[in-house]
Each structure stands twice: as C-alpha cells, then as structure tokens.
Amino acid sequence: MIELDNVSFMYENAARPALSNISFTIEDGEMLAVVGHNGSGKSTLAKQLNGLLLPTQGRVLVDGMDTSIEALLLKIRQRVGMVFQNPDNQLVTTIVEEDVAFGPESLGIPSQQIRERVDEALYAVGMSEYKLHAPHMLSGGQKQRVAIAGMLAMRPKVLVLDEATSMLDPEGRRDILEIVRRLNSELNMSVVLITQLMEEAAMCSRIAVLSQGELIRLEAPAAVFREEAMLCEAGLDVPEMVRLRSSLEKRGIFLEGEPLAINDFADAVAKRYSSTRQ
Ligand SMILES: Nc1ncnc2c1ncn2[C@@H]1O[C@H](COP(=O)(O)OP(=O)(O)O)[C@@H](O)[C@H]1O
Ligand SMILES: [Mg+2]
C-alpha cells in the first residue's frame, strides 16, 4: 500500500537528519505500530506518508504514486488520512457534521454523496447523535472521534494516527483504539498507529521501532518485546504483561506462549494452574 524506499529527511538548518535511510512497506490491511522516544522521528515519518513532507533522499510510493509528484498529492492525501495528537487543532468549523464534510467537499464530491458519507462516518465512530453539536463543547476523546470521522468521509485506504490518544483519558483512549481496530478488521483499512505506549503497540501485527531517525526493528510484537535491552536503549518501556511474565519466570513459574493482552495473560495463568492440579 505504501512503500518507503531509502527515505532520508533533513529539516532546514538541522544539525542531523530527522530520518535516515528508511525502507519498509506498509501492507494493504495491516495494522502497524510505530514506536520511538520523543524526537526519534515518528511525526516526521508520518508526514512522509501523505506528502506533507517530501524525502530529502529516497522516495515514498502510495498505491504506486510518488509523493514528490505534485499533481498526485490530492489523490495521495485522499488515500492516507491523518489524525494528530491535539484534538483542538483539528476541527475547523462550528458544527460537527460540517467538520466531517470538510474533507469530501475539498475533493469536489457531490453534496448528496457527502451527506451519506458524513452520516456513515459519524456512525462508524459512534458520534451520530452529536452531528449538530459544536466541536469545541466535546470532550477530547469525542473530538478525536470527529477528526477520525472527517478522515473516514474521504474513504482513505490508510489511517495514520500520530499519538492520537496521548492527550485522552483512559476511556477516550479505549474508545479510539476500539474504533480503529474495527475499521481495520471490518473495512480492511490499513492503520499506522504511532504511539509511545507499548500496550497500544502490542495490538498491532508489526511494530516499527525508531531511534534517532533510524528504523532499528520491524517485527511482530512478541519478537520486539523479547528484546528488553534494545527497547531500553531506545528509551522505551517493556509492556506490563511482558514484565509480569519475566517476573513470574524468576520465581520458577513458566507460562505457555507470549500473552500480551491482559485476557490472554489470565488465560495462560488459568491454563497453567488447571494443568498443575491434574
Ligand atoms: N519543524 C522542525 N524543524 C526542525 N527540526 C524539527 C522540526 N520538527 C521536528 N524536528 C526535529 O526532528 C527530529 C524528529 O522529530 P519528530 O519527528 O517530531 O519526532 P517524534 O514525533 O518522534 O517526537 C527531532 O530531533 C526534532 O527536534
Ligand atoms: Mg511526534
């Protein structure tokens, strides 16, 4: 879906590149996490994915379209929707449904279709009943849901969330993750989940680890989390379930598999104890 080919990027007047020689592919329908410490290049990478920034070296192809070709940018931005960290910076109008219509209007879509898309998008994020509300009166989590709806109304193939849950309370965060997961599994939308939270990254099929502008790992969550020293060096945490497992192992209690979600962990513990009792 998106191909990065040896991408480097240098901000003007910067001492060192924000991204160095990054190559990888984001597959159709996959859910990819991008993790990294503050300043590791996550947002710079996100902005390469829809041509908001162009590589200083190398190239980015979105559905085969090179982001450096200006005539393709509108198409590229329609394919790759982006939601940022601060919910207050993303809403532009005074009524929720107008905000969601903003994107498709800019694409020149007929108004009857816009109506349908807006209703559908608000429904998908559970915000239908707020369509006539004022965005600035909503909670942070609701604002992010409206921002996601605004992207959905453009019918993107890829949704990029750049620390989109980081300013939300746990409930708002859970709602967003649940919606994103559903869009991925039901609509086969590719998702790039940029986060500093390992628990969020654990939900994805692969994790890309950035450190000082370099891609140092791109693997399945279990493989990444096994490398505690690497994560620590990159300034990242190890997920709680992984720490819990190694802490149990030190006490001689070994579980089957590498459960990363709390329910799977509970299942593994239950399984281990039902087998000792037999
Ligand atoms: N507009 C900018 N001008 C110059 N340097 C920038 C700019 N934005 C980010 N940087 C630098 O680029 C590096 C990567 O930043 P960023 O992509 O924002 O990282 P992250 O999102 O992982 O925190 C950092 O060293 C940061 O200071
Ligand atoms: Mg960032």
Overall description:
- It is globular, with a radius of gyration of 20 Å.
- It has 2 domains: 2-230, Rossmann fold (3-Layer(aba) Sandwich), CATH 3.40.50.300; 239-278, no CATH class.
- The chain has helices at 42-48, 73-79, 96-106, 111-124, 140-152, 170-187, 198-201, 221-225, 228-233, 240-250, 262-277, and strands at 2-9, 19-26, 31-36, 57-62, 65-66, 80-83, 158-162, 190-195, 206-211, 214-219.
- By secondary structure, it is of the alpha/beta class.
- 42% of the residues are buried.
- The strands form 2 sheets. The chain has a 6-stranded mixed sheet, sandwiched between helices. A 4-stranded antiparallel sheet has the order 2-1-4-5, with helices on one face.
- The longest helix has 18 residues, at 170-187.
- Adenosine-5'-diphosphate (ADP) binds next to helix 1.
